[in-house]
């Protein structure tokens, strides 16, 4: 499994990836994530979107942030930390353990400090998204009492 940068060659494939219908209220479409990455970077902030690839083909999408976006909803945890901003496995590839493997690959990548020094990574999820909560807790993410808008914030050391 590997992370691949978004390019003109793979952007259409990555935009086409979707979660199951019952998960769509929890995960933004990849095209929106790419638009947000563009806005962040053009505003002088950090965002790195990647395709998640297994066996040569795309199976998911992830986007990382670094530091503050100056968003009034972002938690205090955003300062000097990495953010697992988006994370999804396509509906056709779910149920095979790829989410766990992808999360391991993502954390390994962030341990390299690709955008600058940081010792923590944070993420947020809807309170009703028990599947995401369970996965993230298995990987050591701990809720810290902060909220990002209406979402629960969880943090872990890199």
UniProtKB/TrEMBL annotation:
Pfam families assigned to the protein according to its UniProt record, in alphabetical order: Acetyltransf_1
InterPro entries: Acyl_CoA_acyltransferase (IPR016181), GNAT_dom (IPR000182), MshD_Acetyltransferase (IPR050276)
GO MF terms held by the record: acyltransferase activity, transferring groups other than amino-acyl groups
Domain N-acetyltransferase intervals: 1-158
Name of the protein: N-acetyltransferase
Species of the source: Acutalibacter muris
């Amino acid at each position: 499994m590997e992370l691949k940068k978004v390019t003109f060659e793979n952007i259409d494939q990555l935009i086409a990836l979707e979660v199951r219908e019952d998960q769509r209220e929890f995960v933004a479409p990849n095209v929106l994530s790419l638009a947000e990455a563009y806005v962040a970077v053009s505003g002088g902030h950090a965002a790195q979107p990647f395709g998640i690839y297994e066996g040569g083909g795309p199976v998911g999408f992830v986007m990382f942030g670094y530091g503050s976006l100056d968003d009034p909803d972002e938690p205090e945890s955003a300062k000097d930390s990495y953010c697992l901003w988006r994370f999804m496995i396509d509906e056709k590839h779910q149920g095979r353990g790829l989410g766990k493997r992808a999360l391991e690959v993502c954390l390994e990548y962030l341990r390299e400090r690709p955008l600058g020094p940081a010792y923590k990574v944070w993420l947020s999820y809807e309170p009703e998204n028990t599947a995401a909560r369970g996965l993230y807790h298995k990987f050591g993410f701990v809720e810290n009492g902060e909220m990002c808008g209406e979402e629960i914030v969880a943090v872990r050391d890199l």
